[in-house]
Amino acid sequence: MSLTKTFVVLVVLMVCGASAFAGGYKIGEHGARAMGMGGAFVAMPRDASAIYHNPAGLSFLEGANILVGSTLIAPSTTFTGPTPSTASTDMVSQTFFPSNLYVTYTMQNGLAFGLGVFSPYALGTEWAGNWVGRHLSVKSGLKTFYINPTISYKVSDQLSLGVGASYVLGSVVLERKLPLIPLPDGTFKLEGKGTGINFNAGIIWKPTEAISVGLTYRAETKIEFDGDATFGSIPNIDPDGPGPIPVLTALFPSGTTGKATLAMPSNLAGGIAYDVNQDLSIQAAVEFVGWSSYDKLEVSFDKPVAGSKTMVEIADWKNSILIRVGGEYRIDKLALRAGFIYDETPQPEKSVGPVLPDADRMEFSLGLGYRLTNTVDLDIAYQYVKGSDRTVTAPTNSFPGTYKSSASLFGLSLGFHF
Q1: What topology does CATH give the domain 2-417?
Q2: How many Å from the N-terminal Cα to the C-terminal Cα in the chain?
Q3: pLDDT tens digits for range 180-219
C-alpha cells in the first residue's frame, strides 16, 4: 500500500533524523563562586566544588566544608525558516534548576575526603505543538545526576593528587508529532532511564606560593537507556480502504520498549592560577571535550517500528574546546568576580536541528561573595550566554533555517566551614 510505505519512510526519518542529547546539554556551572569567574577553577578551586572542578584541590581546603547551591537557567531560541511558510518561531519559555551539594573534610596531614552530587548534563527544548518543525521535535530533555565520592592527598606543600568515582543516573524524554498524511498528526513519545559509572582525577602543583598549575580529567560515561516508546492518536483506519483495518497499529505497536546507549563525553582541562597579591587572584583554563565519542545513535526496539527493530542516526560530532578566564578581588568580607568563556560547538551542520540547535558561544559572568559569619559564605553569580547565529542550508540539512539562541543564568551557593 502506498500509504503504508509513506508511513514507514516518515517514521524512520522521524526517529533517526534528530540530534541526540549531547553538546548543548553540558552544564559547566557547579558553584556560584566558580561561575562568577567563568568556571576558571581548575588550577586552584577554593571551595568544596573542587570535587567537580579538580579533586586535588580538596587537600588545600581546611577542616570540614559544605557547599550547597543551584543555578537557574533560562534559555531562549528563535528559528527562522527560508520560506514564508516557515516564519520565525520562538521556543517555549522554560527554566531549569540544576543543583549541587558538596561535603568535604581535610585532615591536617593533607588527606582529604569528599562527596559531591551534581548534574553536568541536563536541560532540554520545547516547541509549540503546531509549529512547522513539530515532526522533528516538540519536547526533548535530559537529566543526569553524578554521585561522586572523592579522595585527595597532599604529597607536599607544592603537590596534591585527587581521584574520584561516580555513580551516574540518567533519564531522557523525546516528544514529537507523527506525520500521518493525509490524516491528522499522531504523537510519539520516548522515555528512558539508565545508569553508568564514571571516574575523575586531578593534580595541582604550586611551583611558587603565588602560582598554581592544575590538570583534571573526567572519563567518558556510556549510559544505556531503557524505556518505553508510546504512540498516541494513531487511527486504525485506512482512508483508501472500505473500513477499519489494523495497518497503523501494526506499524506503531503499543507496549514497545527500546534501548539506546549515549556517551557523556570525556573532559580534560588544564589551568593556571596567579595570586597577584593578597587581594587579587586570576585564573585561566582550557578544556578539551571528547565529543567525537558521539559518532552515531542506535536505537533498538523489542518490536518492529515502521518495519524495523533497529534505527541508526549518524552524528559525526567533533571534539571541541572551551577557553575560560576569570578573576576575584577581595575587600575584607566582600569578593568581586568576573569571567569570560569561549565555547566551541561540536555539532556539524548536518546534525543541527530543533532537538538541539547548538552553536559557538560567548559567555560573560559576574559574581559576588560575602562572608556572612566566620563559618558561612554567600555567593551569587550571573552569566549571559550568546550563541552565534547558526544557519543551516539544504541539501546539507533536511530542515534548513537559522537558529538564534541565548541564555541567562543565575547562581546561588551557601558555604559552611567548620
Answers
A1: Porin (2.40.160)
A2: 73
A3: 777 788 888 888 999 999 999 999 999 999 999 999 999 9
